[in-house]
Amino acid sequence: MVFCFSIALCVIVLSFFASDRMKSVLLSREDYFYILPDQNDSVVNANSDCKLSSFFSSPSLRSFEDWVAAPKDLWHSMSDEELMWRASMAPNVAEYPYNRTPKVAFMFLARGRLPLGPLWERFFKGHDPRLYSIYLHCSPEFTDEPTESSVFYKRKIPSKVVEWGKASMIDAERRLLANALLDFSNERFVLLSETCIPLFGFLTIYNYLISSKYSFISSFDDPRPIGRGRYNKRMWPTLSISDWRKGSQWFETQRKIAIDLISDRKYYPVFLNHCKPPCYMDEHYMATLVNKQNPEMNSNTSVTWVDWTTGGSHPKTFLRKDISETFLNRIRYDSVNCSYNGNSSSSYCFLFARKFHPSTLEPLLRITPRLFNETSLQ
Ligand SMILES: *[C@@H]1O[C@H](CO)[C@@H](O)[C@H](O)[C@H]1NC(C)=O
Ligand SMILES: *[C@@H]1O[C@H](CO)[C@@H](O)[C@H](O)[C@H]1NC(C)=O
Ligand SMILES: *[C@@H]1O[C@H](CO)[C@@H](O)[C@H](O)[C@H]1NC(C)=O
Ligand SMILES: *[C@@H]1O[C@H](CO)[C@@H](O)[C@H](O)[C@H]1NC(C)=O
Ligand SMILES: *[C@@H]1O[C@H](CO)[C@@H](O)[C@H](O)[C@H]1NC(C)=O
Question: Which residue's CA is minimally distant from atom 10 of ligand 3?
Answer without folding.
Answer: 337
